[in-house]
Amino acid sequence: MSDHHADGSTWVFGYGSLIYKVDFPYLERATAAIVGWERRFWQGSHDHRGTPEAPGRVVTLVRSPGAVCKGVAYRVEHSVFEHLDHREKNGYERHAISMSLQPAQHEVGGILYVARADNPAFLGPASMAEIARQIAVSSGPSGSNRDYLLQLAAALRELHDPDPHVNELAALLLSE
Ligand code: SIN
How far apart are CA 40 and CA 62, in angstroms? Predict the structure, then answer.
């Protein structure tokens, strides 16, 4: 399956802030799902929701056979990648993926941004309480880490795909 439309556009699958912070032009937008990945707040954010001295935590994807991750897909012109690559520069890389566009479950090829365990900003697992605490106290040029988490939780509710990992962290944050 080709990642590229004949017209030079590409589908991008967003599962984190790309769901709710759309600061780029797109040609089409659809709710979408990918199989085999799960969200985790395991990526450090030195440039958006934290600082180099006090990084925040943002989501990446980890492999999870059979898991379904819902998000939003955007069909974008190739020129948009300059902006997206810059926005996702702190450890994320483009990864080719097959996604299912809702509601017709139409399969298309495209890309997503994933932060792998070997990138320098990767923080990895910690207890849910520790992750929530780090999110509660972090902020950076794009705003508070708290808003990142709560906006993501709200966006996933709107997609009718509440994510247990995200919801548990949001509940811990709100109970502080
Ligand atoms: C994404 O939203 O797809 C990538 C992670 C992020 O920017 O929050």
Answer: 7
